[in-house]
Amino acid sequence: MNAVEVRNLCFKYRNSQEKILDNVNLSVMEGETIALLGGSGSGKTTFCNCLCGLIPNVYSGEFSGEVELFGENINNMNIAKIVTKAGMIFQNPSTQLFSPTIEDELAFGPENLCVDRKEIARRMDNVLKTIDMEDYRFENPNNLSGGQQQLIAMASVLMLDPKILICDEIMSWVDQNGKNIIRNLLLKLKEEKRTIIIVDHDLENVKISDRVVQVRDGKFY
Amino acid sequence: MISAYKADPRTKLTTVLFFSTISLIYEEIWVLVLILFLSAITALVMRSSLVSILVRLRKLLGVMAAIAIVQSIFIKTGSSIAKIGDITLLTDYGAAKALEFILRLGILIVSAAIIATSSSREIVQGLVQWHCPYEIAFMSSVAIRFLPLFKEEMTDMVTAIQLRGIDLKRVKLKEKIKVYKYILFPIVINSVLKAKELSSAMVVRGFRAYPQRTSYMVLKMNYIDYLIIASLSAVFIIIIVSYL
Questions:
Q1: In chain B, which residues have their Cβ closer than 8 Å to the Cβ of A142?
Q2: Contact A95 B194 (CB under 8 A)
Q3: Tens of pLDDT along A6-16?
Q4: How distant is the alpha carbon of residue A58 from its chain centre?
Q5: From B202, which residue of chain A is nearest by alpha-carbon distance?
Q6: What residue of B is the nearest CA neighbor of A49?
Q7: What pTM was estimated for this model as a whole?
Q8: Nearest Cβ partner of B197 from A95, A142, A156?
Q9: Least Cα separation, residue A117 to chain B (angstroms)
Q10: How many domains are there within chain A?
Q11: Which among A80, A90, A98 is the nearest to B145, CB-wise?
Q12: What's the CATH number where A15 sits?
């Protein structure tokens, strides 16, 4: 079974004349790392929003086609189910972090899903170990570098243990050192056989992917 | 035991509610001074960095003083203590009202300093354990979290304007208002975009996925907290009964 199956996906934002996604078809196998490469306004972020249910639930517009995660249509899934299947990390780390400590930040997602306290603690220990930031547990995310902030944003999504990780230009706000740290983490997750979708406009940032799909004017090539 | 005591956020909230409410009940200057003194002592006992907060608010202190002076000038009740010819500039009643205003604001600032000794997450948790809806408590904490970002945005915009050759310190007030009008528009747009990004980040982390949520942080009050809350509640009831 494919992790992601997208068929004839079209989307047009409200008040927009043109379709931002035009008859998109894509299959992503479980455990595969795929890169979506394209310029600004090509429809990459909109596609990611469709995969994690932000479209049509949060951003409204004309939506048609099918998006399936592990064989289940996203329209038939509630938020709790979607977030455990597909986790999304955004470009700007500062608007994804809103808690006074890293511990609070990491606990936010599982708390929303009514995960037991002991289980939250177990996941937190594992995730902090994975990103190698155990010593920062009680730090304020605002005091971290851009790269570290992005790692925390990734960790907070990993706390939900999603099967698919969608990274929407997550390296665009960080320096070279931060990019290397994030790339290493993605490699680690790839080795764990997690399905990863990396969206970027820079080929250098998607070198770890198994396959590259070009995105141009809302079409995939 | 007391030296190692760390007040529960709910105790702090009760203390703040107590001081700020009684400061509105009383008008006597000496009572307000006493409340300010007691609240400052409480803030220091709770290890609040009161001095640094006052330093940060020094510009606001100037505004407070200016409002108090303007307010006292416009109050004509009472006997005159300063006048030019037949025009009364300041009355004793006006001066008392101005002092009252400054003392009340002082109590509010010191109360905020007490609250600031807990993190926003602890305050949210305190409110949630008081059965306040999580969404409302969380919303207020996020608003506080984003105030510095708003300020940062404002500073960036002002710097951008200055780099284009406009020295805001030298332009006339009319021009200054015009420049700030240009600055405010992109700031509002950026804030809306940031709020949208934040809400998306929250949704993909399951915000409001279920009507209830668990909490990794759990606050526990000890007997000192109960004692403080009970004492403050008793004093408050006595004040209200004697006032009525």
A1: 148
A2: yes
A3: 999 999 998 88
A4: 16
A5: A96
A6: B200
A7: 0.84
A8: A95
A9: 5
A10: 1
A11: A98
A12: 3.40.50.300
Torsion angle of C-alpha atoms A24, A29, A32, A38, degrees rounded to 10: 0
**Per-residue pLDDT tens digits for A38-77:** 998 899 999 999 999 999 888 889 999 999 999 999 999 9
Contact A94 B149 (CB under 8 A): yes
Domain carrying residue A200: 2-220
Residue A77: list chain B partners with CB under 8 A.
none
Q: Inter-chain contact B209–A57, Cβ cutoff 8 Å?
A: no
Residue among A155, A148, A142, A130 at smallest CA distance from A101: A142
- pLDDT for B4 equals 63
Q: Which residues are within 8 A (CB) of A58 and not within 5 positions of it... i.e. 6 or more apart?
A: A49, B199, B200, B203
What is the tens place of the pLDDT at every residue in B169-220? 788 888 888 888 888 888 888 888 888 888 999 999 999 899 999 999 999 9
Report the length, in residues, of chain B: 244
Query: Which residues in chain B are contacts of A87 at CB distance < 8 A?
Result: 204
Question: What is the rounded distance in angstroms from the CA atom of residue A19 to the CA atom of residue B158?
Answer: 37
Would you list the domain boundaries of chain B?
9-118+218-243, 131-203
Of A95, A98, A112, the CB nearest to B206: A112
Contacts A107 to B, Cβ<8 Å: 216-217
B94-119 residue pLDDT tens = 888 888 988 999 999 999 899 989 98
Interior/surface letters B198-221, b for 16+ CB within 10 angstroms, e for the rest = bebbbbbbbbebeeebbbbbebeb
Q: How far is A90 from chain B (nearest CA, A)?
A: 8
Helix, coil or strand: residue A42: coil
Extended strands (E) in chain A? 2-13, 21-29, 33-37, 61-69, 72-73, 86-89, 164-168, 195-200, 211-216, 219-220
Q: What is the C-alpha separation between A83 and B206, in angstroms, rounded?
A: 6
How many CB pairs below 8 Å do chains A and B form together? 98
Residue A143 φ then ψ, to 5°: -90, 5
- Exposed, middle or buried: residue A34 (CB in 10 Å: 0-12, 13-18, 19+)? buried
